[in-house]
Structure formats: structure tokens, C-alpha cells
From TrEMBL:
Belongs to the plant acyltransferase family. It comes from Corchorus capsularis. This is Transferase. PANTHER family: FATTY ALCOHOL:CAFFEOYL-COA ACYLTRANSFERASE (PTHR31642:SF310), TRICHOTHECENE 3-O-ACETYLTRANSFERASE (PTHR31642). GO terms for molecular function: acyltransferase activity, transferring groups other than amino-acyl groups. The lineage of its organism: Eukaryota, Viridiplantae, Streptophyta, Embryophyta, Tracheophyta. The keyword Isomerase does not apply. Keywords: Acyltransferase, Transferase. It comes from the Eukaryota.
């Protein structure tokens, strides 16, 4: 397609026929248990990883990456199976060994021609991840779909579509790094630990805490109307070390807090700004949900290489008026409490709560914060050196705010979110600190 009539460039990707890549050796068959922490986040996450080497072209990239995939699926064999429903009405994996879906593709341009590859962009980056045509529901979408796209400049990308019920961010990062290791003929630094039954609910279940993370919040401010009527704008905001230090000083200036983490202060700052930007009514309840990594918080801690979801949702709920009018320390203090809430007993109570109620967290009146800023996706190497960029293709849901790592500076965080146009203009002003 290349150039179009008026001389402006149109990015085009030609995809080959999808094939199945099976594990390189015979793997276990039968049903594979998913924990209650996996059940709650069965959404498709699309991520993309770019590679370019000065010394090696992309001629054999497809073959090399595909052979590596076949090898890593021996270790991560549940990903080669099929999602189905268990006799208890829960998601479970049927380990069929049918393999991951794999697509070879070619772009009509050089990598630099497609613009800023570090920002999620479902229209451009979406072309680099294969979507199963005609899939009606999650059970019809394979657990793992890979597209390798070659660019004219010798670069290539790996577009991955994976069901979140299989791996959380840390698990996905370990999977990608391990895939790179086997591709280069190296032993795995962190072999996967596959037994998720260590997070089985207790018998009988014990719900020891209120679980307001599942509460429905009434939208008295009619925000959903804004989302429907206005164009959604997606922007990212960089918080470097200096800006983060300023925010921490601001949060502690009234003496209410003696310390706060980068996550707590940034989450509090963004939560408040979003309430202001959407012009929420003072008595509009706002719920902030975010995932806490439970791997070390469980007692005993989850084994190294736990390949599943080791994250638990924790929450804060406050009136928008209080968030906006009170000092920053108020919002940050609420988040600090929410982080501390995620103890072994709270997390096991959440597992048991799902067992009894089968509740799904409601996203009405909610901000869902997802932190990728600590994930070392930049260490992935398939033989072309570490990835030059990686990240999500798009935000999974409208109320999601992503904290992403900065490519070069480990102490900086990129905050990415989408808002209706009128809200985004106000939010941009509030980000100028």
C-alpha cells in the first residue's frame, strides 16, 4: 500500500497465514488449575517488543523466534493449551499441547517511519499484534498469540496477545526473558513454578475483611455520559526524579506523613487530578483500585518463578470533594493505608471471598491503576541485543491509568491515561507542577 495518492505515508502490515507452534517436546496433558486470583482478570493484554541490531539484520528473525517459542512452551506448557470452563463453572486450562498461534508479517516501511513507538497507540501498534478473526468470547481466543513483524530497516517486533489469567506482569516479564534465553541456547535463569494450587481457597472459606474493592459506585456525576459523548484523548506525562522529589515534599509539607513512596505520592497526585479534571461532584465517591504484588507478602512467600497471578487488588474509597479540597497528604495517606492492607490474611480472605461470591470488581466510579514501572522488559534479548522499546498496545479499559518505566532513566515514571477531551485539557494543566 505504501504511499497513497496525496503523498502522505500510510503504515501497512501484511500478515501471513496463522500457524500453530507446538512445544518442542511432549508435555503434560489434562486439566490445569487456575487460582481465584487468575479468575478475576481474564482479559486479553496486548504488548509489543521492538528489536534492532547494528550488526545483525532481521532475515532469520521469524525462524529464530519461532524455534525459541517451541522450546519455551515445553516449560510453559499451559500456554499451549485451551481455556475452558471447569465443572465448578470456573476458568481452567485444558493442556492439549495444540500450541500458540504464530503469524509472520512484514511492514511496508522502516521502524522510524511509524512515529513514537513508546506510546500506546491501538491504531498503529494494533497492526503489529494478530487478532483472531470472528472470536466471540474469551474461550475462543487462544491463550497466546504471537506476531513477528519485519521492518525494512532490519528491525523487527514481537507482538504478543495473552490472556491475563495466565500471567501477571512479573510472570509475563519472566516468560519473555526466559523465551529469549532458550532462543539464545542459554539455561533459564528463573524456571517457572507452575503449581497454582498453593493459592487454593481455604476449606471452609474464611472471609475476614470487608472487600470493598468489589463495590459498585453510583455515578452521580454522570461521568459515563462524558465518556460516551466526547472523543477520548490518550496522553502520557513524564515524572522525572526531580518532579517526583517535589511531589514527595509537597505531600509531607503539612507534617501528616513522615514518609511516602514514589508509587503512593504519584497515585495520590493523579487520583486527585482526575477527580478535578472530570469535575466530579463533591459527594461523588471515587474508588481507586490497584494491584499489589503478593509474591513476598504471602506467608510463606510464593516460590520464585511463580507463573500465574500473584497480585491482589487493594483499594481506597473517598469523596471527590475531600480528595480535591484537602492537602495532597490526604490522598497519599489513603493509598499508604491501602498498600498496608495487603497482608497474607487479607489476600487469603480475598481468595475466599471470590470463592463464595464469584464477584468481579466493578469499574463504575473507579480508577484502576496498573504499575509497570518496576518491570524489566528492557532486558529481553533474542540474540539481537536488548529490546529498544516495549510496552502495551493500548489501555485495557477506559478508567485505567498506567505507570510505565522510562526507557533510559530507571528513576522516572511515565503516567499514561485516557480521558474525555474536556477532562484531558484540565488534567494537562494540573500536571504542570
Amino acid at each position: 500500500m505504501g504511499e497513497i495518492a496525496n503523498g502522505t505515508f500510510e503504515f501497512d502490515v501484511s500478515q501471513g497465514e496463522p500457524i500453530r507452534v507446538r512445544p518442542a517436546e511432549e508435555t503434560e496433558k489434562g486439566l490445569y488449575y487456575l487460582s481465584n486470583l487468575d479468575q478475576n482478570i481474564a482479559v486479553i493484554i496486548r504488548t509489543i517488543y521492538f528489536f534492532k541490531s547494528e550488526s545483525r539484520g532481521n532475515e532469520d528473525a521469524v525462524e529464530v523466534v519461532k524455534n525459541g517459542l517451541s522450546k519455551i512452551l515445553v516449560y510453559h506448557y499451559p500456554l499451549a493449551g485451551q481455556l475452558t470452563i471447569s465443572s465448578e463453572g470456573k476458568l481452567i486450562v485444558d493442556c492439549t499441547g495444540q500450541g500458540a498461534v504464530f503469524v509472520e508479517a512484514e511492514a511496508n516501511c522502516q521502524l522510524e517511519e511509524i512515529g513514537d513507538i513508546t506510546k500506546p497507540d491501538p491504531i498503529t501498534l494494533g497492526k503489529l499484534v494478530y487478532e483472531i478473526p470472528g472470536a466471540q468470547n474469551l474461550l475462543e481466543i487462544p491463550l497466546l498469540v504471537i506476531q513477528v513483524t519485519k521492518f525494512k530497516c532490519g528491525a523487527f517486533s514481537i507482538g504478543m496477545s495473552m490472556n491475563h489469567c495466565m500471567l501477571d506482569g512479573i510472570g509475563a516479564m519472566e516468560f519473555m526473558n526466559a523465551w529469549g534465553e532458550v532462543t539464545r541456547g542459554l539455561p533459564l535463569k528463573i524456571p517457572p513454578f507452575l503449581d497454582r494450587s498453593i493459592l487454593k481457597p481455604r476449606n471452609p472459606p474464611k472471609i475476614e475483611f470487608p472487600h470493598h474493592e468489589f463495590d459498585e459506585i453510583e455515578d452521580i456525576s454522570n461521568t459515563s455520559k462524558l465518556y460516551e459523548e466526547e472523543e477520548m484523548l490518550y496522553k502520557s506525562f513524564l515524572f522525572d526524579h526531580e518532579k517526583l522529589s517535589q511531589l514527595k515534599e509537597k505531600a509531607m509539607e503539612d507534617g501528616v506523613l513522615s514518609s511516602c513512596t514514589t508509587f503512593e505520592v504519584l497515585a495520590g497526585f493523579v487520583w486527585r487530578a482526575r477527580c478535578k479534571a472530570l469535575n466530579l461532584l463533591p459527594d461523588q465517591k471515587s474508588k481507586l483500585l490497584f494491584a499489589v504484588d503478593g509474591r513476598k507478602r504471602f506467608n510463606p512467600p510464593l516460590p520464585e518463578g511463580y507463573a500465574g497471578n500473584g497480585i491482589v487488588l487493594t483499594y481506597s474509597i473517598a469523596d471527590s470533594g475531600d480528595l480535591v479540597e484537602k492537602p495532597l497528604s490526604y490522598a497519599v495517606g489513603l493509598i499508604h493505608k491501602a498498600v498496608k492492607l495487603a497482608t497474607d490474611s487479607f489476600m487469603r480472605s480475598a481468595i475466599d471471598y471470590f470463592e463464595v461470591t464469584r464477584a468481579r470488581p466493578s469499574l463504575a466510579g473507579t480508577v484502576l491503576l496498573t504499575t509497570w514501572s518496576k518491570l524489566a522488559f528492557f532486558t529481553i534479548d533474542f540474540g539481537w541485543g536488548e529490546s529498544i522499546s516495549s510496552g502495551p498496545v493500548a489501555l485495557p479499559e477506559k478508567p485505567v491509568i498506567l505507570f510505565l518505566p522510562h526507557q533510559k532513566d530507571k528513576k522516572s515514571v511515565n503516567v499514561l491515561l485516557g480521558l474525555p477531551a474536556s477532562g484531558m485539557h484540565v488534567f494537562e494543566e494540573l500536571m504542570q507542577i
